[in-house]
From TrEMBL:
Organism classification: Bacteria, Pseudomonadati, Pseudomonadota, Alphaproteobacteria, Hyphomicrobiales
Gene3D superfamilies per the UniProt record, alphabetical: Nucleotide cyclase (3.30.70.1230), Tetratricopeptide repeat domain (1.25.40.10), TolB, N-terminal domain (3.40.50.10070)
SUPFAM superfamilies found in the cross-reference section: Nucleotide cyclase, TPR-like
Domain Guanylate cyclase per the UniProt entry, residue ranges: 10-125
Superkingdom in the source lineage: Bacteria
Name this polypeptide is given: TolB amino-terminal domain-containing protein
Database matches in InterPro entries: A/G_cyclase, Adenylyl/Guanylyl_Cyclase_3/4, Nucleotide_cyclase, TPR-like_helical_dom_sf, TPR_rpt
Biological process terms in GO annotation: cAMP biosynthetic process; intracellular signal transduction
Gene Ontology molecular function terms on file: adenylate cyclase activity
Cleavable signal peptide: none
Length: 584
């Protein structure tokens, strides 16, 4: 081994945001994009600032610099370039990197560096905002007066496998972006649990959706048992593809237990394996595996949910799990198609939404009486209208209304179906009070349903009660603190503040939501009217231009029809702002 020495050096850790998800979508194109950024924006510039890359991974790298200031300034220049270029990934997202920088005492061995300081850089980088950087308190103090970068104090932060808290500071090229640290969730007094994504052991990556479907059903069954506080599926799936420490999950989600597991599907046979782990100690409380035929999948899922429930709370009986079950489809292939549609629905993009409508149409062709498929299809058509994705609003509205009529009598005891109906009715401009009642009914059945809480929030705002809407949105965030759909919750909170006359808060929330989901354009509609009422007409026009880029035919009249679910005073105020921004 080469002669070793120690030295004090600034260490930069870079990591591609959502790399595992991007690779699953299109491995070849993702690798080409990462290599292009590495070659053109990193290798060509890092030496000019006295830096060198000493380790590369598939989704990131580690670099050493000779100067603290140069390390920070080079990282800021890199992030500014990426922010300005807005490189598109194969999945339509904006390519982003997280960066963490520490001043560390490292062990030198040839061209490589080792030591706790290198690991610390990676841990700090994990807390960076996408597209920005995080540094430690020591770095921040060292930089005092040497840079114009504006860092936000995130306070003492717990880092994975670090015994002490470390005070962190964050920076982002968009200085108006709120860089609040994620709130620490408080445990519920009830037994609290999250069902983490199960591993797909089928040997075929395309079977991943099948494992996701199993988690979806176990989560839904546990959620409807009122003795439990259950984290929503969307927040749980934020951990998919990540090596995780259950103690960190417990702190981030405020839960006492996690359920982990795997699904192996071989032909017509399936095995579900699960284990229950206590987050405080990491101790395994219970584990089991269940084998059976794919045709018996629903019974297998219910059996597993019942065993998890009994391990969590011995007084929970099978009868209570039985009562929590929703009506099952008769045709397994129809259920399979609905599970395939869900990730496209939650993607919240026009092309994905159209794909979801196609899957749901296939499901209904196989089983016309499948209420959940009809309700989700109605919601998908509602999104076509509300987000101005549809080239023919009248056609999509008519299709959505047919789906509502078809589903309304069949999802009376299904929280997800009821919430989808509530969403569809609101977005299609139907009876908002009736839609809000559907969301309330969903919460009577499943008080853990984060999406229903979110939809209750929108309903209250649309009906003229923004404060009640804000309370519902906050509850939705508690039930799903890491939800990738949280940007929509923030947009709802922004609309509530706008309705109440708090325009600056509305702007901050809308900008934050756009930062959470780069690539979306329809929220610029909100931002345009918020800026106009705030008196910043230049920013309002800029936001309106971004909204109209993909929707050049939108007018005040057509938008008024699209948004008719808002109560009259709110709709009038909303449209008035867009007129001020320049919409004819």
């Amino acid at each position: 081994m080469p002669q070793s020495e120690r030295r004090l050096a600034p260490i930069v850790s870079l990591d591609v945001v959502g790399y595992s998800r991007l690779v699953r979508h299109d491995e070849r194109q993702t690798l080409r994009l990462v290599q292009r950024v590495y070659d053109r924006l990193i290798l060509r510039t890092i030496g000019d600032r006295g830096g060198r890359v000493f380790k590369t991974m598939g989704d990131g790298l580690l670099a050493e610099f000779s100067s603290v200031v140069d390390a920070v300034e080079w990282t800021a220049d890199l992030q500014r370039q990426l922010h300005e270029r807005k490189l598109s990934t194969p999945g339509g997202e904006i390519f982003q990197i997280r960066a963490g920088i520490v001043l560390a005492d490292v062990l030198v061995a040839g061209e490589d560096l080792y030591g706790a300081g290198v690991n610390l850089a990676v841990r700090v980088q994990n807390h960076s905002p996408p597209g920005g950087m995080c540094i430690t308190k020591w770095m921040f103090q060292y930089l005092d007066g040497t840079t114009d970068l504006k860092f936000i104090d995130l306070g003492p932060t717990e880092l994975k496998n670090i015994s002490r808290t470390v005070r962190l500071f964050a920076w982002h090229p968009d200085e108006q972006l709120p860089l609040r640290p994620p709130p620490v969730a408080l445990p519920s007094e009830r037994p609290s649990v999250v069902v983490l994504p199960f591993d797909n052991l089928s040997g075929e990556p395309e079977q991943g959706y099948f494992a996701d479907a199993v988690v979806e059903e176990i989560t839904a069954t546990l959620s409807r048992i009122r003795d439990f506080f259950v984290i929503a599926r969307n927040s749980a799936f934020a951990y998919k593809g990540r090596a995780i420490d259950v103690r960190q999950v417990g702190r981030e989600l405020g839960v006492r237990y996690v359920v982990e597991g795997s699904v192996r599907r071989v032909g017509e046979r399936v095995r579900i394996t699960a284990q229950l782990v206590e987050t405080d100690t990491g101790n395994h409380i219970w584990s089991n595996k269940i084998d059976g035929a794919v045709s018996d999948l629903f019974d297998l899922q219910d059996r597993m949910a019942a065993e998890v429930a009994s391990a969590l709370h011995p007084s929970i009986r099978w009868a209570e799990v039985e009562r929590a079950r929703s009506k099952r489809p008769e045709v397994l292939a129809a259920y399979d198609l609905v599970m395939r549609a869900l990730p496209h629905l939650w993607a919240h993009r026009a092309a994905d939404n159209a794909r979801a409508i196609d899957y749901l149409g296939q499901a209904l062709a196989l089983e016309p009486g499948y209420g959940l498929a009809a309700a989700l299809s109605a919601w998908a058509h509602g999104q076509q209208v509300a987000y101005n994705w549809s080239p023919d609003i009248a056609r999509d509205r008519s299709a959505g209304e047919r789906m509502i009529e078809q589903a309304a009598m069949m999802v009376t005891d299904q929280p997800t179906g009821l919430t989808a109906l509530a969403s569809a009715m609101m977005q299609l401009g139907g009876d908002v009070a009736q839609a809000a009642a559907f969301a309330d009914k969903a919460l009577e059945i499943d008080p853990n349903h984060a999406w229903a809480w979110m939809r209750r929030g929108f309903g209250r705002v649309y009906l003229g009660d923004p404060e009640a809407g804000l309370a519902a949105f906050e509850t939705a965030k508690r039930h799903s603190p890491l939800d990738p759909f949280a940007f929509n919750c923030h947009l709802g909170m922004g609309l509530a503040h706008f309705s109440a006359g708090r325009h600056q808060q509305a702007i901050t929330l809308a900008r934050g939501a756009l930062a959470e989901r780069p690539g979306l354009t329809w929220p610029y509609r909100d931002l345009a009217t918020y800026y106009a009422h705030h008196g910043d007409l230049a920013a309002a026009r800029h936001a309106l231009d971004k909204f109209l880029t993909l929707r050049p035919s939108v007018t005040i009249v057509s938008l008024g029809d699209t948004l008719r679910f808002m109560e009259p005073a709110l709709l009038s105020k909303y449209l008035r702002g867009l007129k001020l921004a320049g919409l004819a």
